[in-house]
Specification:
heterodimer; A: alpha+beta; 2 domains; 9-stranded antiparallel β-sheet; 11 helices; 27 strands; 29% helix; B: alpha+beta; 7-stranded mixed β-sheet; 5-stranded antiparallel β-sheet; 50% helix
Amino acid sequence: MGFVKRTVLPALVLFLGTLWFCPQELRAEEKSAVKAGYGWSVQGKGANVKEAVKETLAMVRKNVERPDFLFLFSTVGYDSQALLEEVNKQLGRKVKIYGGTSCLGVMTSDGFHIGDSASMAMLGISSRNIVFGVGSASLDEEKTARDAGRKAVLAAIKNAGKKEMDSKPDIIFMTAAPGEEEGILDGIADVVGRDVPVFGGSSADNDITGKWHQFANSNVYSNGVVLAAVYTDLKVGYTYETGYLRSTEQGVVTRAKGRVIYEIDNESAAVVYNRWLGGKFDDIMENGGSILSRATFHPLAKTIRGERGQTYYVSIHPLSIDLPQKSLTVFANVNTGDNISLLQGNWEMLLNRCYSTPAKACLQGELTKDESSFAVFTFCGGTMLAIPEDDRAKMPALVKEAIGSTPFIGVFTFGEQGFLPGFGSAHGNLVSSMVVFGE
Amino acid sequence: MLVLTVGMVFLSVLEFSLWQLKATEKWYLQEYKLLSQIASTQVEASYLSGVWPFEVLHQLTKSGNVVFWRVVKPDGTIKIADDVALWGKKVTQPELVDIEVLTIKESRLPTTREKIKIVIVPLNIMEKSKPWNFWLGISLKNLMFARRQAILTGFVLCLVALLISGIASFLLARRITKPISELVRSTRMISSGNLEHKAKATTGNELGSLAESFNEMADSLKKTMVSRKSLSSIINSIADPLVVTDTEGKINTVNPSLLELLGYSEQELVGKPAGTLLAEAEAEAEAEAEAVLLKERGLARIFKETVVRGSEATCISKSGERIPVSISGQVVKDTLGEIGGVVAVLRDLREARKLQQQLVQVEKMSAVGLMAGGVAHELNNPLGVILGYIQLLLGETSKDDPTHQDLKTVESAVHRCKTIVQNLLSFSRQEKVVSVPVSVAQVLQSVLTLIGHQMEVNGVKIVQNIQDNLYSVKGNVQQLEQVFVNIMVNAQDAMPGGGELTINAENIDKQVRIVFKDTGCGISPDILNRLFEPFVTTKPPGKGTGLGLSVSYGIIKDYGGNIEIQSKEGTGTAVTITLPALL
């Protein structure tokens, strides 16, 4: 009994006292493997960046006091460098940051956020079950996009505290400047192979004038690639969805280079495309010009075959009709010999993807709403703009319908990357993707 | 009546509008019921495909009348809605939940409290054997607006219709009443005597015919009747005073002659009793009696006797002068024989009376002259005998003989008698005188030279106004001098304390008029008319014979002239002599 009085009882009191006075967060982490918190702000740019960051982080900290990793998406209304500096400053310690600029607004579980001049959203993660590593490269500094991809993924792996040969990341998030995404994906595949899913979207601005930026920890790129390599033993569900209906119009690209399709079935690509649409662009055929917004519901689809015979249709957004060849400039690389077909859709179909894409991701990851910890939703900016303004608020609502109260962050991009089983990661347009983490 | 009509029209419009609106509301809800069913079918089909028909629902909300749509689960949870804030929320109204047949419920929007209809369609999406519901919130705002517009439009149309009908009625009534008014005006014009007026026959209907008949009647009247204007002209042109009364004896019409006679204006007489024209009742008793009598003889008598001719009466002028008149008149009867008044013509008798008096005087003087002449002639011879014998006796007696003195006295008396006889003969114009052209001016100057000085000594101032180139007259210088002296001496005697004698002599037409006007004591009216009679004098006994003026009268009359005396006691006397000029 004396031993009990002198040794066991004090030890028990000390343990209980420690348990009682330890941070609430620690006690919560005992219950859950992942803590995720989101925040957002629509306060303006300039002097308000500080307040906006403060407001956003305050919301994040309601659920995760000290995040290890931060998804950060903002519109181009902010000074990106100042924004990133302010985030680092207010976080007060070394937090890995991954993100980029979004088209027009951002999304969280609270809704679609679009301020008078700017908006931002953050998703903070803290989990002993996830290791993040952020790597980046400047496309301007590397010889090729592929080199940049390779460099960035190696940096990400290293940042995660892993070695190249240790193990492959379970998933990689990608944010790059629009233009050479296929090359970047090839570079990533060079390092980690094609079986590591790469999800993400190309950073965007509001008017396709190149004001986009990419965020990597404390670095801001205007023409770079930022990758986040994720190592986790959690369940991960993902999907990459075009969401259009195929038409019967199809052909073979008989001449193409990079993102310009010159000929389809040995005929000027624009002529063929316009014919498929019943002369929808007759008014532009004469002098050429942008068809970006008018082509949103009528994208082309590149047929991709998986190694086990799967067939995927990756949608490609036509950008313009170019003279004199009457070629089509698109937002994804097309190769001569690719099968190409015409897709049809409407904004209702695109909006409904806000439900179907997350729902399919959960299904794919065998995650229920309750099991989901956090999610990252990527939605084509062009597609978002095609949805009537009054109905855009339904996008996050539909996401919530699919994943319940799971915290998520959403970004609107100019080109989306996703994983096609049997083929690997691909770059497409007008696509939505979802990555859900759960226990 | 108009208010009742307007009220009934408004009520009818209101009732019609309400009936129409009920029908519209029924049709309106029927339409949205159908729309809800179509939308619900879309929801069902889309749900089974794993999507939501956002485009269709979006179009629904753009219709303007759809305020919201919702997909509600049987437990009241809102699955989706147009407002994402409601997603996952519970419906607070249990009566709107778990509806299994198509239902239309009434509710209000929580924000604006606007009254709405909710069409609830059960979906073929079952949960625990209960259907999900599709809600379509229908705003009644536009319907209400349409209702107000319809009522307002109805009222406005009603007002416009009333206004148009009012204007039309007014114009129609005016079209009818204007000719009638014109006829009435024409009637008044014609009744006021303007027979030249014509009624305007502007319409070709019965009123036009009436107007034409009216004009024909006016023409006929014009032909057969003396217009009032003509009557007035006739009355005004009558030289004799004329008065017309009504049945009560009040003056209706007078002519300018009457106004001139009595000195009144027309306004002062019209409407007054006709008795106003005659002697006042307040006059002296005798005059009053006379006035009453005259009145009786005058206008009143006309009423009694219907016709009166030459009845004498006395009118009183505005200045109070009594004017003798002769009244002739008769009652005026209308076509039915009813007495309408009296019309009377008055004749001024003053001149006639004066002439009558003069005639009497002349006749009297003529008789006196004849008598005086006869007497003088008869006395002249005996006086001559007496004088002859007296002169014989004188010659037979000495001057110292007392008889001689007595004979002298008798001789003087006889001479005096002869003078009187001579004067009487002069008065009676039986004296033989030689008439020669005589200058009146010279005769006057001669007389003034003779007695002018003595008169001035006696305090009489003589004022002469003798016209140059005064006509001469045919007569005897001595006789004329005698006349003038007589008159001037009489004037002097009338002004014992002095005074003024004005002598005016002038040519008037073919006559010479000489006026002697003194400022003496005047002559009483009772003597004035007898002054030219022999032996009539106002002088004290012994001062005059009373033959001066008689002789003057005889001389002047003998020359074919005239002598008049106007006098007023206390003021003076004017003697006017008129002699035919010798041209």
